[in-house]
Design goal:
Alpha-Beta Plaits, 11 helices, 14 strands, 35% helix
Amino acid sequence: MPSIEVSDLHKSYGPTVALAGLNFSVEPGEVVGFLGPNGAGKTTTMKILCGFTSPSSGSARVDGLDAVADSLEVRRRIGYLPENAPLYREMLVCDYLEFICSVRQLDSALREERIAAVVEQLGLASVLHRPIGELSKGFRQRVGLAQALVHDPPILVLDEPTSGLDPNQIAEIRALIRDIGQTKTILLSTHILQEVSALCSRVLIVSQGRIVGLGTPAEIEAQAAGGSRIEVLVRGGDDLRAAFAAIEGVREVRDAAGEGPQTRGWLLLTEADADPRAAIFQAAVEGGWTLLGLHREQESLEEAFRSLTRPS
């Protein structure tokens, strides 16, 4: 049984269509990246899954339960971290976690055990008796994760969990999510594509309320355009844009960084199954310019995301 199952989900706010027939599932133990441009329908989907709003039509099931008909039980089985974590800055961390336990109606005998567990897992012991408002953004995000985990739910929904953090804090939160993902199902919404590659087994891309990409990061890259990126570094020659664009299999030519005043870099995006490297080498010979670098790699997840979510 899927941990999350969404079937033909529609949601409209007056004339504005937020979701236009969403279908996907998340299996137990998966960490699935939920991607899309602003306004694509990600937050609406997460709010429906967490019982904060109802769909216009279609269904969303969490751990086998209907997110509307069984809303209270669904909320018990989900830990939700919104982009702006619901923290009370004047409260001590320990008091806040006690408050969340009471809201979650945890048995008093279980509260001490669960608070101790999340404090240890998230490294909060050193700040347990400090006001939340005095903590760094990284520690506040850890407290936000703690409130999502304290009732030990099988499923986590995380909305931009590293937003606004510095690189060191991002690395720390990613490590925590990776650790949590070993025992729980996670739906992770983020704009940071490196985060998806580092944490997620599958990727779900939504645009204009519809699924436009679904699969592993490698499958998404192949699905988008099937092409590759070729980085070219040359010395000599004038503007070679037209020469590169004329090569069969090249669909786009972009500027890239060189290695000094005498060199210039180019980025060539190719058609599916095209490998124009031999033609590039031949063009260099015929044009009399020196080829210093020629590197080919499959289209990146970033390029795939842009291709799949580009307005039609």
